[in-house]
Amino acid sequence: MTALTLSTAAAPGLRADAIVIGVAKGAQGPVVAPGAEAVDKAYDGKLAGVLETLGASGAEGELTKLPAPAGFKAPLVVAVGLGAEPDAENAGDSDAGYDAEALRKAAGVAARALAGSRKAAFALPVDSPGAVEAIGEGVLLGAYSFDTYKDNNRQAQGARARNGKAPLAEAALLGGKPRDAAHKGAVARAIAVSEELNRARDLVNTPPNDLTPAAFAGIAQAAAKEHGIKVQVLDEKALTKGGYGGILGVGGGSAAAPRLVKLSYTHPKADKHLAFVGKGITYDSGGISLKPAGHNETMKCDMSGAAAVFAAVVVAARLGLEVNVTGWLALAENMPSGTAVRPGDVLRMYSGKTVEVLNTDAEGRLVLADALWAASQENPDAIVDVATLTGAMMLALGSRTFGVMANDDAFRSTVYEAAEEVGEPAWPMPLPEHLRKGMESSVADIANMGERMGGGLVAGLFLREFVGEGITWAHLDIAGPAFNEGGPFGYTPKGGTGSAVRTLVRLAELTAAGDLG
Asked: Which of 283, 331, 396, 445 has its CB surrounded by the most CB atoms within 10 Å?
């Protein structure tokens, strides 16, 4: 991953391949953002006009390259758009600086554009440790590249590459204070979050012939050992003995047997406990209710929820958060075969409830149901599950926003606000009681399907049935933002995105601080 450093060096004398500056969209045209004063001075204070001549406006995601001024040791200036300039009326307000997400996106755009460079200096607005962290995250997430399966010769020559170019090797954050504890802490957090989020992206991008439930469990075991996390893996024999009918039912059609992984991070001073539960369908064919052509090519991403939970638990351990966090990874491969669960079958779940399976492609809620009940047995202060659960949620919210449902309105608001704070678009969704009736079954306690309209909400209501009584719970349906099938944008690459990792980490931090709500 890109090396991240803090630097007090002046831009003109720094040896680098490029100097990255910010440009905002002002009322009268582009405005050079704070941090680039030395660069602007070298252009006789006319840098904004030069950029405008080159077509720059300061719009978010916009990138303009121009030769560096005479005397600079870096040959190139890269101006990246920050979006609208902060409100001038609030210029004296310490909170009126550039939004953290704008900085994160701008840094990501620049880092991706500088693939193949050895070093870049980022002279973006740094007015707080939060800005340092945002820029650092943007760089590390934007420079991400997944090329494990491409061109072995390039792999042998050096770092993983993007289109023949290795990711940016080093980023120096100008204006950062190397000896300041808050700035150093901001960099450390950015590195921990970004490294684990990028590992989640790697998992989502790994083809399903290599990432089976057993392989995923092995990766989790190795990471747990490295970071002092207790791990327990239930294989098919242990799942059978324990009565995990949902996970066994979904995984029964595959030669790759299912797993339930429990990751436990504990802090000696913690008095709060969070449980995260992740859907980990390493490949979803739909089972007997087979998906049609055109709907299964990206179904390796159906374990994105488990990847997010895994990453969040590791981040909590790396940051030493004063909270106990348990992660549950419900891992299975959903395949059609002579041993696969059939529409019409009835499964007895870990909770003891029976479920009539009306559609085998509604499998995520089945594995989550078992994991939610297992998590409930420890009576945590809150449970949050994460899943690429329904196409209905994509129809409702599009491809960049995840839905948040909960059995407690205040907790739903807390989760939504945490997501917005870290730059993950989310939206609160209801759990209408009238939709529960559609899941009534004549042969079982509940069916795994209900009304077609509001299908994402129906899935949430199903999951609620398997949360222990009195336990606060939220459900994140990340079906839209978990996998980006379009081109990269901001710090988001094509493919696996690592959606929800930062939200879960923020919830753990809020809990550690006593601010969960």
From this structure: 331
The amino acid that residue 196 corresponds to is E
Q: Is 365 a catalytic residue?
A: yes
Write down the H helix ranges in 151-180: 152-157
- Coil/strand/helix, residue 401: coil
Residue type present at position 25 = K
What does the DSSP 8-state code read for residue 11?
Answer: G
pLDDT in tens, 240-288: 999 999 999 999 999 999 999 999 999 999 999 999 999 999 999 999 9
Read off the pLDDT of each residue in 476-498 and give the average, rounded to a whole number. Answer: 98
CA 455/CA 452 separation, integer angstroms: 5
DSSP secondary structure code for residue 33 in this structure: P
User: H or E element: which one contains 170?
Assistant: strand 170-174
Residue 405 carries which DSSP code?
Answer: E
pLDDT band of 152, cuts 50, 70, 90: low
Q: Assess whether 291 carries a catalytic annotation.
A: yes
Dihedral of the alpha carbons of 85, 86, 90, 91, in degrees to the nearest 10: -70
Query: 257-269: buried (b, 16+ CB within 10 Å) or exposed (e) per residue?
Result: bbbbbbbbbebee
Q: In whole angstroms, give the CA distance from residue 403 to residue 252.
A: 30
Report the 3 state secondary structure along 107-118: HHHHHHHCCCCC
CB neighbour burial string for 72-87, b if at least 16 within 10 angstroms, e if fewer: bebebbbbbbbbbbbe
Q: What is the pLDDT of residues 19-35, one digit of tens each?
A: 999 999 999 999 999 99
Query: Per-residue pLDDT tens for 64-91?
Result: 999 999 999 999 999 999 999 997 444 4
In this structure, are residues 397 and 427 in contact, taking their beta carbons and an 8 Å threshold? yes
**CA distances (Å), origin 233, targets 41, 142, 207, 258:** 60, 33, 22, 10
In this predicted structure, the answer to whether residue 154 has a pLDDT above a threshold of 90 is no
d(CA 319, CA 334): 35
Task: Compute the distance between CA of residue 333 and CA of residue 254 in angstroms, rounded to an integer.
Answer: 6
- Residue of 160, 184, 291, 494 marked catalytic: 291
The set of residues, in sequence order, having a beta carbon less than 8 Å from that of 506 and lying 6+ positions away, is 418, 419, 421, 422
Q: Where are the beta strands (DSSP E) in 346-458?
A: 346-348, 354-356, 382-387, 402-406, 426-428, 446-447
Q: Which of 365, 436, 502, 506 is catalytic?
A: 365
Report yes or no: 364 and 388 within 8 Å, Cβ to Cβ.
yes
Asked if 191 contacts 140 with a C-beta cutoff of 8 angstroms, the reply is yes
* Nearest partner of 206 among 483, 402, 393, judged by Cα: 483
CB atoms within 10 A of CB 167: 22
Long-range contacts of 161-164 (CB under 8 A, 24+ apart): 161/115, 162/112, 162/115, 163/115, 164/116
Using an 8 Å Cβ cutoff, are 259 and 371 in contact? no
How high is the mean pLDDT of the chain?
Answer: 95
Asked if 108 and 88 touch (Cβ cutoff 8 Å), the reply is: no
Strand partners, 474: 384, 406
Tally of residues, the chain: 517
